[in-house]
Structures are given as C-alpha cells and as structure tokens.
Amino acid sequence: MEPEGVLDDSRALGRREVTESLCGRTRAVVERYLDALNRHDVDTVAACVAEDFFNEHTSALGHSVRGRAAYRERLPEFLAQFRELHYEAEDWIVDRDRCAVPYTMTCRFVDREANSHPIVIRGLFRFRVEDGVIVHRVDYWDGNEFARQVQLEGSK
What we know:
Number of helices: 4
Radius of gyration: 19 Å
Number of domains: 1
Distance between the termini: 68 Å
Helix content: 25-40%
CATH architecture: Roll
Low-confidence stretches: 5-11
Structural class: alpha+beta
Number of strands: 7
Shape: globular
Mean pLDDT: 88
CATH topology: Nuclear Transport Factor 2, Chain: A
CATH class: Alpha Beta
C-alpha cells in the first residue's frame, strides 16, 4: 500500500525533473547576478538582466527603473553611494522561473555631506527569470529602518 499523496505515475517524475532543471537554471542566473552585484561589476550585473528589465522597489526611499540601459546607467552612482555593498543570501526559494531570496544587506552609505554610515538591513528580493536573464526584480526593505540607522550613526 502506497502512503497517501504518493503518485505512482512515471509522467509525474518527468515533470519533476523538468521543474528541478528549470529551478536550477533560475537559481544560477540569480546567483550570477548577486555575485556580480557584490563584486560591483556593473557590466556583468547589467548583462544578467533583460533589455526590458523592471527593477521595482517597494520602499518609499527606493527608486524603480525600467530597461537595462537605464538600470546600467544608475548602477555606478548607486554603488558609489552604497560603498562596500554586499548582499548575503539567507535562503533560496525557487519555483520554476521565480526566485525569492531573503537577504542581509551591508554597506557604508555615503550621504550628501560625504558622511559614511554603516548600514545593516534585512530584506527580500523576488526575481522572475526568462531565457537566462532576469526580467523583473522586486526589492522589499524597510526604508524607515535605513533612515533610523543613518540618523543614529549621524548623532554619534
């Protein structure tokens, strides 16, 4: 007797192999992207995203942008302001062409007066991958926590 919920269907196994293969490819694309971002390799970061890439930010302090060219253009300024930027993946949740990555971001944020503030923020990326590139990235992080850390560091 089979345990409840177990399918004895060889076609189901084939679908699972296809799904696992797609998940592996999706994760590899996102890993390549995050690695390039952590190395501050602007050209490789841009090569990981689609021509019509949508970089969506949910935080009031974030700025969404559409298109690889616009995203590539903004990266150097972003990396100059968020020095030593590093995303540490806490987990990988992958389902076919979608990937969610809870992260801890660390950096030294440089404000308008050229003061440097150490920042540690937890957030979550949500990605959608098509044809080996990222077509949509949503970044969820707490802008109030970021502002609090900048203010606390500035008051020392």
